[in-house]
Amino acid sequence: MAQEIKIPKLGLTMTDAILASWLVPAGAQVTEDQIICAIETDKVSFEVPAPCEGLLHPVVEAGRRVEVGERVGYIAVDEAELSTLQEAVPVAGTGPAEGKSDDFCQPREKGEAGEPPVSAASAPRVEKRGGDRIVASPAARKLSQATGVELCDIEGTGPGGRIILADVEAFTEAARAERDATRYNFGSAVPETDLLTAAETVPIRGIRKIISKNMKLSLSSQAQLTLHTEASAADLKALRTVFNARLEDDHPRVSYNTIIVKATAVALRLYPMLNASVDGHQIKVWDQIHIGVAMDFGQGLVVPKIRNTDTKSILDIAGELSDLARRAEKKRLFPDELSGGTFTITNLGGWDIDHFSPIVNFPESAILGVGRIMEKPWVQEGRVIADLRIPLSLTFDHRIIDGALAAQFLKALKDRLEDTRLML
Amino acid sequence: MAENRKKLLELYRQMVTVRQFETMAGEYFAAGKIPGFIHLSIGQEASSVGVCSCLRPDDYVITTHRGHGHMIAKGADLKRMVAELFGKKDGYCKGKGGSMHIADYSIGILGANGVVAGGLPIITGAGLSIKMRKTDQVAVCFFGDGATNRGPVHEAMNMASIWKLPILFVVENNQWASTTPLEYACSVEDLYVRAAGYNIPGEQVDGNDILAVQKAAEKAVIRARAGEGPTFIENKTYRIKGHYEGDPQKYRTDSEIKKWQDKKDPINRFSRVLFKKRVLSKKIVDQIWSEVQTALNEAITFAENSPFPQPEDAMADLYINS
Amino acid sequence: MTDRIISSSAALAEALHEEMQRDETIFIMGEDLVSHAGVFGQFKGLPEHFPGRIIDTPISEACIAGCGVGAALTGMRPIVDFHFSDFVTCGMDELCNQAAKIRYMSGGQVKLPVVFWCPDGAGLRAAAQHSQSLESWFVHMPGLKVVVPSEPSDVKGLIKSAVRDDNPVMFFQHKKLFAREGPVSEDDYLIPLGRAAVKKEGKDVTLLCYGAGYYLCEEAAEKLAGEKIDAEIVDLRTLKPLDMETIAASIAKTHRAVIVHEACLTGGFGAELAARIQDELFDELDAPVKRVGARDVPIPFSPAMEDFVLPRADDVAAAVHAVTYR
Predict the structure, then answer these.
(1) Is A247 an 8 Å CB contact of chain C?
(2) Cβ atoms within 10 Å of B265's Cβ, excluding its own
(3) Interface present between B and C (3 or more CB pairs within 8 Å)
(4) For position A147, which CATH number holds?
C-alpha cells in the first residue's frame, strides 16, 4: 500500500508553504527518512524526509504553493504499484521551480525594464489559482490598483486562495518595504553594460528574500550605532574547561558561545531596555529573554532562538545550541524557532574577524557581535603579559537606547565574561 | 320638433363620423401608416352612438379593443385620436397607448382596454365611487360577446347588483369572438339571459337600430341615476370587418357577411328612417359626409404634422410624483 | 410625543385611522372586513368610526382589485384588502395589466392612488395556498410600487405614505408579524417610500432584508456579535422604488452582502438585488453576494416540514460565515 507524502506543519501559525524542489527524481528508490523534497515558508526552508522506503511518485510540481497536510506525492512499495499510481495520478515535474514571466504581472514602471520582476517568485502561485488568472475579489482588485500593489505578490486567504481586501491591506505596507528593499539593493545595482555577463542568475526568493527584507527593514527603520570593546577571555576559557572536563562523552560540549549566551542573558536582565522592540509609538520592553544565535551553513543565514535563555543553565544552553545547529544544517528548523527572538548574538570569530558592525535582527533592538578570541600582549599593572582577548561589538537602536546605556550594558557583559562568577 | 330633428341629425352625423374614421383607419393601416394592429367596429355604429347619446360628459365609459366608435360618440377629439393611431407625440396617449388604449379622462373615457372583459371590474369601481361620492353619474362598460365568458364579468355583475351600482353593462353581441362563433363558445344563444343570474334587468336590442338602442339605454340610464342599480343591454349586431385589419377570416363566408350589409347596415337603416321622416335629404347626406370628411382630413393633417415621440420619452409617465 | 409599545396590527389600524380622518376619499374594501375588523383584526376600530368606508365584498378578487382601480380613477383613494396575498393570482389582470399600466398607457393622463394590502408569509401552518411571499412578482411589474415593512413603526409610517401616494402600491405585511410589538410614535409621521433604514450598524457584513427577513437578521446579528462578526442590518422596507444609495453606502463599508427574504430563493427579490449589487457595486465587493430564502417548494403543511423549508437565523449566520472568511 503506497504511503502518502504530506506537507508537515512546522509551526503553530503555518498554513502553507512553497514546494521549492524535489530532491529525488520521480520513480527513484528512496530509503526511510531520506530527504526527498524541500519546502519554504516565509520564515524557513525545510527538507521533507520520506515516510518510508519505496519508489517516489511526486504529484505536485515544484514551485507550487501547498497547504499544510496536502498530499504532494506517494511512496510506492514496488514497480507494480508505481505504475498503477502513474496511471491514476500523473507525475508532476521535478526539479527546482523556474520563475515564469506572467502577463498579469509585469514590472509596473516601464523605465525599470532591466529590473528583474519582483513577482517572479510568485508566478507559480498564480498558476495554482487556475492557469493564468489571479483570483481576487473586486474590492481587492480595486485597492490593489489604487495603491499600486501587484496582486500576484499577495497571498490570498479567501476560499480557493482568493485574494480579498484584507490581504491587500495587510500586504500593502510590508510589500512596499520589501519591494523597495529588493529594488534598491539588487535591482538598481546592475550596471548598464554589455561588458558583463552573468555567470549565474539567482532568483531572490525563499530564504534570500526573507534575509534581504529583514536587513533592509532593519537598517531603514532604526538608528543603528555600534560600540566596540574587548574583554579578557581567560576566565571564560577556564570555565569552559571545567565544564567540558566533567561532561559525559555524549553530552554536547560547552563552547565559548554557550557561556557568552548565558552572560548576555544575565546582562540583559540588568539592562532590560536592550531587550525591547519598537511597536508603533511604543517601546515594548519584553518580560522574556529569547536570545537568537546566528548560524550559517552555506544555505543562508538563520537565527534560531533559545527560549527563556536567562532561566536556563549553561549545560541546557549547550544542549540546545547543539541541537539547533544540527537541525539548521539539515534545514529542519521549525518556523516558530526562527521568530520571536528578543536579542541576537552573531559570532564571526571562526573566520578570523575581530571587530565588525552587525545589523540588528529586526524587530529586535540590539545585537552582539563576537570576534576572534586570541592571545595578545596586554599591559597589566605595568607589565606586558600574554592575555586571551575577545572582541565585542554591540549594535543598538539609538532611537530607544542611549549611548551611555548601551555602554553600561556592554561593560556589564564584559565584567561577567572576565569574571564568570558574576553570572551567579 | 326642430330640437328633435337636430338630435336625429346629430346621431346620423356621429354614426357617419365613426364609419368614416374607421374606414380611414383601415386604409391607413393597409398603407402602413398605422403600426401594430387595429380592430374596427364598422357595422356596429348604432350601438356606440346610440348608447353614448344618452350620456353626459361627466358620465364614465370604458370600452374595448374595438373602441373607436365609443370614443367618438363620447366626444373624443378626432385629431388626437388619429395622432395616437399614428403613434405620434400629440396623440391622446403621446404614442404610448395606440388604438387599443386611447383614453380621455377629461370627458369620462376611462380608457379602451386591451384585455377582453378587462373593463368590467374597473367600471364596477367607478360605479362604487359614484355611489360613495353620492353623485348621479352613470358608468357604462362596453364589451363583446366573447367577454361574457370571462370570470370577471360575472364577479362584476354580481357586485354591481348587490350594491345597486349605476352601471350599464352593454354587450355588443357581434356574434364573433375573434375567430370563434357565439353559438360555439356561449352556453346560451341570447346573452341578456345571463343578467337574470345576477338579478339584473337584461334586455336584448336590435343593435343595428340606433333608436332602439337609444331607447333601451335611456331607460337604463334613468334607472341608474335613480339609484336603482345596473342594467344589462345586449345589442345584437354583426362584425362586418375581421377581428383585426388583415384578418384572413377563414372562419366565415362572404355570404354571411353580405347578409348584414346594405339593408341591415345601421347607417343605411337609420338614413331610411330619417328620409321617411324627412329629416334627411340627399343634399344633407352629402353635406354631412363631406363635412365629416373635412374634419377627418384636418385630423389626419394634424396627426401627420405631429412629431413622433423621442425614444427616451418611453421612460416618462410611469409614476406620478405625489 | 412618546413611543408606545404596540403591535403591527395596532400600528396599521392607527395609521389608517389617522389617514381616513384626514381624507374622506379613503376607503377600504375586501372580504370579511366589517364583522371582525379584518380577518386578522388589522382594522380594529375602523368599521365603527368610518361606517360605509369599510366595505365587505363578495369573494371576487378580480373584481375587488378592479374596483380599486376604477375607484382610484374616479376620485377615490381605495385600499384593497386581498385577504391573503396568495389570492393576488385571482386579480393578476387587474393588478398587472390594469393598475400598473393605465397611467402609462394613457400617456400620464391620470393618477391611480390605490393600495393593494396583502397579508403574506408563512409559519402559521397554513400550507401552500395561504403562506406565500410573492412580492418579487410585482417588483417585476413597472408601474407598481412594492412596500414590505417589518417593524410596527415602519408599518405605520409606510402605510400612511402608501395611502397618500398617487401610484398603485402593493403593500405586503407578514401575517406572523401582526402581533409582533415594537415602539411606535404617537406622532402623525410618514416614512417615504423608497427609503431603507440602517437598523443596526456594523462593519463586517451587510444584511439586506425586508419584512420577516428583518427579524431573522436581527437574531442572526446577535449570534454573530458573539463571534466578533459585526453585521450591519439594512431593512429595505420598500423594494420598489429601491434605495440603492443606502445599500451602496453600507456595502462600501462592509464589502460583503447577504440578502435575506422569506420568499423562495429562485427568482426572488434577492436575485434582482444581487444582480444590481454586482453591477453597480462590483468594485466594492470582497466576496460573492449570498442569498438566504425559503427552499424552492410550495410551503408544506406539517410543522416540521414547514420549518425545514423556511429560512432561519442560523441560515443567515451560515451565509455570513460563508462570506466573512479569513
Answers:
(1) no
(2) 19
(3) yes
(4) 4.10.320.10
Interface contacts A/C by beta carbons within 8 Å: 33
Number of domains in chain A: 3
Q: Touching check for A155 and chain C: CB below 8 Å?
A: no
In a shared domain, residues A143 and A231: no
pLDDT tens, position by position, A36-70: 888 887 667 788 888 889 999 998 888 788 888 88
Question: What are the boundaries of each domain within chain C?
Answer: 3-185, 197-321
Cβ contacts below 8 Å, chain B against chain C, sum to 154
Instruction: State the fold for domain C3-185.
Output: Rossmann fold (3.40.50)
The verdict on A140 touching C (C-beta cutoff 8 Å) is yes
Residue A143 at interface with chain C, using a CB cutoff of 8 Å: no
Q: Which of A158, A182, A206 is the last residue of a domain?
A: A206
Task: Note down the domain range covering B231.
Answer: 2-315
pLDDT at position A181: 55
Residues of C involved in catalysis: 130
- Is the same domain home to A235 and A377? yes
In chain C, which residues have their Cβ closer than 8 Å to the Cβ of A15? Answer: none
Dihedral angle sign, alpha carbons of residues B122, B127, B129, B132: negative
Per the CB < 8 Å rule, is B96 touching C103?
A: no
Residues in chain B: 322
Q: What is the CATH number of domain C197-321?
A: 3.40.50.920
Same domain, A161 and A273: no
User: Does A97 map to a domain?
Assistant: no
Say whether pLDDT at A117 is over 70.
Answer: no
Inter-chain contact A139–C286, Cβ cutoff 8 Å?
A: yes
DSSP assignment of A92-144: PP-SPPPPPP-GGG--S-GGGTTSPPGGGGGHHHHHHTTTT---B-HHHHHHH
Q: Are B203 and B233 in contact (CB under 8 A)?
A: yes
Asked whether the beta carbons of C150 and C214 are under 8 A apart, the reply is yes
Instruction: Report CB contact under 8 Å: B121, C71.
Output: no
Q: Does residue A410 sit within a domain?
A: yes
> Would you call C106 and B124 a contact, using CB atoms and an 8 Å cutoff?
no
Q: Which residue of B has its CA nearest to C241?
A: B319
Q: Containing H/E element for A158?
A: none
Strands C145-147 vs C169-174: parallel, antiparallel or unpaired: parallel
CA distance readout (Å), C95 to A60, C14, C68, C115: 62, 26, 10, 11
Shortest CA distance to B198 belongs to which of B163, B227, B158? B158
Numbered residues of chain C with Cβ closer than 8 Å to any chain A Cβ: 255, 282-287, 325-326
- Tell me the chain C residues in contact with residue A138 when contact means C-beta distances shorter than 8 Å: 282-286
Lowest mean pLDDT among A27-36, C170-179, C184-193: A27-36
Question: What's the mean per-residue pLDDT of chain C?
Answer: 96
**Last residue of some domain: A150, A178, A206?**
A206
Q: Kindly report whether the global pTM for this prediction surpasses the value 0.90.
A: no
* Strand, helix or coil for residue A65: strand
Q: What is the CATH number of the domain that holds B276?
A: 3.40.50.970
The verdict on A83 and A117 lying in the same domain is no
Are residues A45 and A165 both part of a single domain?
Answer: no
CA C271, CA C252: separation in Å to the nearest integer? Answer: 20
Amino acid at site C192: P
Mean of the per-residue pLDDT values for chain B?
A: 96
Which residue in the set A139, A141, A166 is minimally distant from C326, CB to CB?
A166
Question: Is the domain of A132 the same as that of A253?
Answer: no
Does residue A180 or residue C152 have the better pLDDT? C152
Q: Is A13 on the interface with C (CB under 8 A)?
A: no
Residue of B nearest to C67 (CA): B125
